[in-house]
Recover the amino acids of this structure.
């Protein structure tokens, strides 16, 4: 039997509607989701924390508490970016430990921990903290293809993660280009040689996802990820109902009720209707080109946005050719937050200036110096020479350079909110400016509804106060702006300033 992890409450809406599903649209389905028999429900992490505070004016901790109370039987799962937590930089070890402990206390049962470079040092503190909190540590291997990302290398990483205390492994195919054959070979080798349960997460962007999920299930995967059909396909996961139907009556049968899943899908169809203005049709398209250029759909959206800002949309083909070259220069990092932005924006600079590395972004300089971790392969020597001629490289673990942060954040947030607890201090520590704006808006009564109605009043579907509550499906008890990228939440580098910031037209999955 294969387990199913349901992503409709996290990656499903992160992938298709810019992470904008609100807690009030999740809760009416919670009891029925809890009764299905999923292996786990992914409900938190990734971009949800940032978007809750920045755009929805919601408290992400309150969302977690409410979902845990409504779904006490099914393990709740979150995506944690290793030393980056749910942000876009490395945080100190004390902050990582505090965040994990608080997340477990408030309801997270399974932590899917990954690092963009597959650098185990960037996952160690988080994995230790998960185990200390009594939760399940799901250590993640980011799947990619390159001369150095071989089956033996992935298996060696799996052994290392097991030695670090992982309870299980996840193969994370954030680009959606892992073919069925190599996927099955990888899962089979990990199960046989490492001996831990293996879960597979993929995306439907290239069209391979359902085939790959079936292949890895046959190869011994303990579980695969799916999303209920209204929030499935394209940049999201394969449909849960399709996966269940494909395995029904076979030794892989997850034994989930298709009728009950259909009722839940009917509910989430009504939810999708109210968020449809946020749906970018590109995010639903199948793009087999990913199989050759390995550029995930969200990263492609970023590149298009950056080129459009420079009136250079016609040069996309040149950028698509430059991305693999930059990636090779940087040691073949997997293209996931933040490395997708680091590689993509440097590729745009190289094309637009007409000279490779005439301008080197701040992020590339930090990457080359080792501030993001150890790259999978050696870097281009000339690029290393140019960068380190003005600033030395580091050889140790990046987080070792960071002083403790939590107590300082707690003092600062209590200067703003005297009764602030540890959770609020963590929100402040992760996103100080965003948290201040959130508290200010909340204190003045500027809710998401008020702000949205003022900014987007012409889009009636987004005027939340005037929307009727969605009707529950039959036979059950009730229980930001259109046209933006579906990944409107991740940090990117602006072409003009070369400074980090978070913008509502940027992305990357998962993610």
């Amino acid at each position: 039997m294969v387990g199913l992890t349901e992503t409709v409450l996290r990656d499903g809406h992160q992938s298709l509607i810019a992470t904008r599903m609100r807690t009030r649209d999740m809760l009416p389905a919670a009891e029925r989701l809890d009764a299905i028999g999923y292996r786990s429900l992914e409900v938190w992490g990734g971009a949800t924390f940032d978007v809750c505070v920045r755009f929805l004016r919601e408290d992400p901790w309150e969302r977690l508490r409410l979902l845990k109370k409504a779904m006490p039987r099914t393990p709740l799962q979150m995506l944690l970016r290793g030393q980056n937590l749910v942000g876009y930089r490395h945080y100190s070890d004390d902050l990582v430990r505090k965040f994990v402990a608080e997340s477990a206390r408030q309801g997270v049962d399974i932590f899917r921990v990954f690092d963009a470079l597959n650098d185990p040092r960037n996952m160690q503190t988080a994995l230790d903290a998960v185990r200390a909190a009594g939760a399940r540590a799901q250590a993640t291997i980011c799947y990619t293809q390159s001369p150095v990302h071989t089956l033996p290398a992935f298996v060696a990483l799996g052994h290392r993660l097991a030695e670090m205390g992982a309870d299980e492994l996840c193969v994370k195919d954030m680009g959606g280009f892992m073919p069925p054959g190599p996927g099955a070979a990888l899962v089979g080798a990990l199960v046989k040689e490492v001996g831990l349960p293996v879960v597979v997460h993929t995306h439907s962007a290239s069209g391979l996802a359902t085939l790959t999920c079936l292949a890895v299930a046959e190869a011994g995967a303990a579980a695969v990820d799916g999303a209920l059909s209204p929030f499935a396909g394209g940049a999201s996961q394969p449909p849960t109902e399709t996966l269940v139907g494909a395995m029904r009556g076979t030794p892989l049968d997850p034994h989930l009720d298709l009728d009950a899943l259909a009722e839940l899908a009917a509910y989430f169809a009504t939810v999708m209707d109210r968020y449809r203005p946020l749906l970018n049709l590109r995010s639903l398209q199948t793009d087999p080109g990913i199989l050759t250029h390995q550029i995930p759909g969200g990263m492609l959206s970023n590149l298009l946005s950056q080129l459009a800002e420079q009136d250079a949309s016609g040069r996309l083909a040149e950028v698509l050719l430059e991305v693999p070259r930059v990636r090779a220069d940087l040691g073949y990092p997997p293209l996931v937050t933040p490395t997708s932005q680091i590689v993509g924006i440097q590729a745009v600079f190289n094309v637009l200036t007409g000279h490779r590395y005439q301008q080197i972004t701040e992020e590339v300089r930090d990457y080359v110096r080792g501030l993001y971790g150890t790259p999978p392969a050696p870097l281009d020597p000339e690029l290393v020479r140019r960068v380190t001629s003005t600033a030395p490289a580091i050889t140790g673990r990046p987080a070792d350079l960071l002083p403790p942060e939590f107590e300082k954040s707690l003092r600062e947030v209590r200067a703003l909110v005297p009764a602030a607890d540890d959770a609020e201090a963590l929100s402040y520590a992760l996103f100080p400016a965003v948290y201040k704006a959130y508290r200010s808006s909340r204190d003045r009564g500027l809710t998401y509804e008020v702000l949205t109605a003022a900014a987007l009043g012409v889009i009636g579907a987004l005027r939340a106060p005037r929307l009727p509550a969605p009707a529950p499906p039959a036979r059950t008890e009730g229980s930001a702006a259109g046209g933006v990228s579906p990944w409107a939440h991740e940090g990117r580098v602006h072409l003009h300033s070369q400074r980090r910031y978070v913008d509502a037209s940027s992305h990357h999955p998962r993610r």
